[in-house]
Amino acid sequence: SNPKVWVLIGIGVAGVLIVAEVQRRRLKSKNRVKLQFGAFVERFELLPFAQPPPPAARFPLAGLTFAVNDNFDVKGYVTGNGSTDWRKTHEEAGKTAIVVTAMLRNGATCVGKTVMDELGFGILGENRSHGTPTNPQNPSHVPGGSSSGSAVAVAAQLVDFSLGTDTIGCIRVPASFCGIFGFKPSHGTASAIGVSPNSQSLDTVGCFASDPSILHRVGHVLLQLNLVEPKRTRRIIVADDLFQLSKLPAQKIANVVAKVTENLSGYKSPTSMNLGQYIASNVPSLKSFNDDSTNQQKGIAALKALSSVMLLLQRYEFKTNHEEWIKSVKPKLGPEVSSQVHEAMNVKLENVKNLYRVRVEMRAALQSLLQDDGILVLPTVADFPPKLNSRKSLPSGFYDRMYALLSIATISGCCQAAVPLGKYDSFPISVSFMASHGFDKFLLDTVLDMNSSLQQEVLNSTSSALPYVNGNMDEAELLKEKGNAAFKGKQWNKAVSYYTEALKLNDTNATYYCNRAAAYLELGCFQQAEEDCSKAVSLDKKNVKAYLRRGTAKESLLFYKEALQDFKHALVLEPHNKAAAEAEKRLRRLLN
Fold first, then answer.
1. What SMART domains does the annotation carry (predicted)?
2. pLDDT one-digit tens code per residue, 369-400
């Protein structure tokens, strides 16, 4: 009978209904995000700036949609940095990141924030806080990180392009794993204001796109580039030694690039080089980071040292930026990120200046090599994307090979674009183009200019086997002896040619394969050497030299566990073989 009671009851019921509706909408929003390949942390809409009336030119990004990593500030939203613990301990952003505003100012619409590896660490793309985005190309495999959600959103065609950050490969790796274009600009050329830092000396704001023309337009807006630039004849340089680290069909990719440049105007014939040896000779400060416990070829050792510099610099600067927060909050992180953060928190450097000295020398070395007209061609990644939750069973040397490739542009600060080139063994493959620091427009123009011809050539290319010729056994032996003589005279290429001719006459002789492998090892062609040794072993199970040489090739390719098995096998066949015993001891020490 008391009206006030009914009013209170009404308010209570209304409150319950409001709370229930809020919960329903949140659940619906979460489910919608999960359905979209798990790419988004949250969805919203930031409309572009108003298009001026004619005769003003149409905005370059008009009609395009984009998403951004969870480490970009958007006014009114909390920047989560990929971590729920980070999100809980930080306030809403007061301003929007400069690069996000630039996209809006040029006509694009922002539709949300994407999942990333926690705190920007990791290259696999797995996230404990928000779940791992689904790789549209291979759902049972990782998407790559740290800019995982941004790559997936583009690959799944949820947006036209996306913005991410690249510290040690965080754009290049997911671009490769998801089969899309990824652009890491020259360090310091894109504004990082309003972007959570991981390591300022390495952090670079970049972008993803599935179309090279969109990548070209976004890159121009991102870096505020001039539309017109003087035309230059392009020099294409293929880093042969880096393709030896990769599981990609190296010769096929080199042939594709060569044929494309032959048919395009303004390109010189491609040249090849051993980039690792060039770095070893031109970056003297790297010597202090060499690992003397390994028996690695000079160029491989230099790349391994460069990787160490990259990781040490990242850990040092991350610790400087976030040590206080890590110690006070003690965030719950995924296994890969947790391991990286632990390493960072325990890093102790006696001479930090050496890290920055390597950075300066590396940029100068690449500038001297590429100048204003050079494009370096290299594999984007070394391995195919691993399966989800397979961190403990990754191939031996997975990170060593990956970091060796990624550290080149990371430490030099050069710009790099990952370009998809179809599929191989059902996985997307990617080749990268790299240009000197500051020559980002030159690189973007090159990608746009070459892409259609590259894709057409990939479709046209077919693998052709060497013809088998039945020949006289004595003639094959004569060719083998000529190969041996060339080998003793240190004419490695000539030796390979003679052994190859011998194999055309008799491809069932294990010695021919084993001898050619020895010549390949001297040339630094470790992948070919491994293949020849495997063929020799299949023909002669007791060929000790084949096991030794295959072990050497695998060690040089950073497959330490597999190399150890070959040296063990050689010792079973020859228990007193000193070379096998020393190699086994060295690798055991390295793996422990």
1. TPR (SM00028)
2. 999 999 999 999 999 999 999 988 898 899 99
Burial label, 232 (beta-carbon count in 10 A; 0-12, 13-18, 19+): middle
Token reading at 470: 């039945």
Residue 165 has pLDDT above 90, yes or no: yes
The pTM score is 0.82
Of 538, 472, 532, nearest to 500 (Cα)?
532
Report whether 76 contacts 190 (CB < 8 A): no
In the structure encoding, which two tokens stand for residue 399, read together? 């990170």
Q: What mean pLDDT comes out for the span 124-134?
A: 95
Strand order in the sheet with 109-114: 40-46, 109-114, 65-69, 161-166, 204-209, 181-184, 415-424, 427-435, 374-379, 235-239, 271-273
Phi, psi at residue 509, to the nearest 5°? -100, 110
Please tell me what DSSP assigns to residue 288. Answer: G
Closest CA relative to residue 172, chosen from 472, 382, 427, 395: 382
Local structure of 166: helix, strand or coil? strand
pLDDT digits (tens, 9 = 90+) for 66-110: 999 999 999 999 999 999 999 999 999 999 999 999 999 999 999
Q: How many whole angstroms separate alpha carbon 67 and alpha carbon 186?
A: 22
How far lies 226's CA from each of 52, 57, 207, 300, 399, in Å?
21, 15, 18, 39, 38
52 alpha-carbon distance from chain centroid = 40
Cα 319 to its chain centre, rounded Å, is 24
**513, 500 contact by CB (below 8 A):** no
Pair type for strands 181-184 and 415-424? antiparallel
Q: Which residues pair with 204 in a beta bridge?
A: 166
Distance CA 438, CA 74 (A): 28
* Residue linked to tokens 């209904």: 17
Which phi-psi region, left, alpha or beta, contains residue 104 (left: φ > 0; alpha: ψ -120 to 50)? alpha
What radius of gyration do the chain's Cα atoms show? 27
Q: What is the pLDDT of residues 401-444, one digit of tens each?
A: 999 999 999 999 999 999 999 888 889 999 999 999 999 999 99
Report d(CA 164, CA 321) in Å as an integer.
20
Angstrom CA distances, 301 to 28, 165, 196, stand at 53, 28, 33
Q: What digits encode the pLDDT tens for the residues 251-264?
A: 678 788 888 988 89
For 452, phi then psi, to 5°, come to -60, -40
Count the neighbouring beta carbons within 10 Å of the beta carbon of residue 343. 16
Assign 471 a pLDDT band (cuts: 50, 70, 90).
very low
Q: Measure the CA–CA gap between 404 and 301, rounded to whole angstroms.
A: 10
φ/ψ of residue 93, rounded to 5? -70, 140
What are the beta bridge partners of residue 267?
234
